[in-house]
Design goal:
alpha/beta, globular, TIM Barrel, 41% helix, eight-stranded parallel sheet, binds ligand LLZGTKA7
Length: 276
């Protein structure tokens, strides 16, 4: 099944647009695991088991594994999610971008080694740097467009033929690059106006939206700006606010509660109503 199909099923099955980010930082683990990078899999497994029912996807960020030489634990984690929660997509957040021959290796790493269902990529080097990912036709390729960090504006808002650069990325990614309908875009929750602009440009294309929770993005503004007519179309990511909802022995229960509350807060605004 393709990434887009699995995602559509997960949106409906779990009644959720919440993507849970897996950014394990041993320094923030609860006391029994604290500082121990050998416990990354165990920590993430507890979070996954506690929150999967409230999620439409999981998004491990590769840096949090690679920094601790924990790539084997990342492989184990993705395999675990696929076995225990079949059909729940896993997006490898790697933000790759390089010449075609190297991109082929990165695509192999994401989709064959890690068995991710989708990967994030940087469009800065153009179409030939993205094409090798698209060759994996059942996989998702999620292109950085208007990122959630303040510094993203330095380049993404640069005027290019009368339009900010992020809009050119949205246009290329949704039209000439999207030959097989497998592309999505990253647009930060910290920029709801830009989410709305991108949504109008790209139809129902999935938007990966980080920036709620620890980065302070507004859930109501995000959902209203990004929802499709069907009340779908978004993977709204929260990582730290869920992973570290408690640093005590109740960390998994606290993550479960934070995930449920975030899923429900998002759902309040999925469909237009007289109140929203
Ligand atoms: O524009 C972007 C693109 C990616 N990210 C990633 O999302 C999570 C956000 O984590 P929080 O703890 O919910 O802030 C993290 O993995 C980033 O690398 C992003 O924040 N913004």
């Amino acid at each position: 099944m393709s990434f887009i199909q699995s995602l559509t099923n997960a949106w409906q099955r779990n009644d959720s647009l919440l993507c849970i980010g897996l950014d394990p930082d041993p320094a923030r683990f609860p006391a029994s695991f604290k500082g121990n990078s050998d416990k990354i899999f165990e920590f993430c497994r507890a979070i996954v088991d506690a929150s999967a029912t409230y999620a439409c996807a999981f998004k491990p960020q590769i840096a949090y594994f690679a920094a601790h030489r924990a790539e084997a634990q990342l492989e184990q984690l993705i395999a675990y999610i696929h076995t225990e929660y079949p059909g729940l997509p896993v997006i490898l957040d790697a933000k790759r971008g390089d010449i075609g021959s190297t991109a082929q290796q990165y695509a192999h790493e994401a989709f064959t080694r890690y068995q991710a269902d989708a990967v994030t990529v940087n469009p800065y080097m153009g179409f030939d740097s993205i094409e090798p990912y698209l060759a994996h036709q059942d996989k998702g390729v999620i292109v950085l467009c208007r990122t959630s960090n303040p510094g993203g504006s330095e380049l993404q808002f640069l005027n290019s033929n009368g339009r900010p650069l992020y809009q050119i990325v949205a246009e290329y990614a949704s039209q000439k690059w999207n030959t097989n309908g497998q592309i999505g875009l990253v647009v930060g929750a910290t920029f709801p106006h830009e989410i709305s602009t991108v949504r109008k440009m790209v139809g129902d294309m999935p938007l990966l939206i980080p920036g709620i929770g620890a980065q302070g993005g507004d859930i109501a503004a995000t959902v209203k700006a990004g929802r499709t007519e069907q009340g779908l179309g978004m993977l709204i990511n929260s990582s730290r606010a869920i992973l570290y909802a408690s640093n005590g022995s109740d960390f998994a229960a606290a993550a479960s509660q934070a995930a449920r509350e975030t899923r429900d807060a998002i759902n309040l605004y999925r469909r237009p109503s007289p109140l929203n």
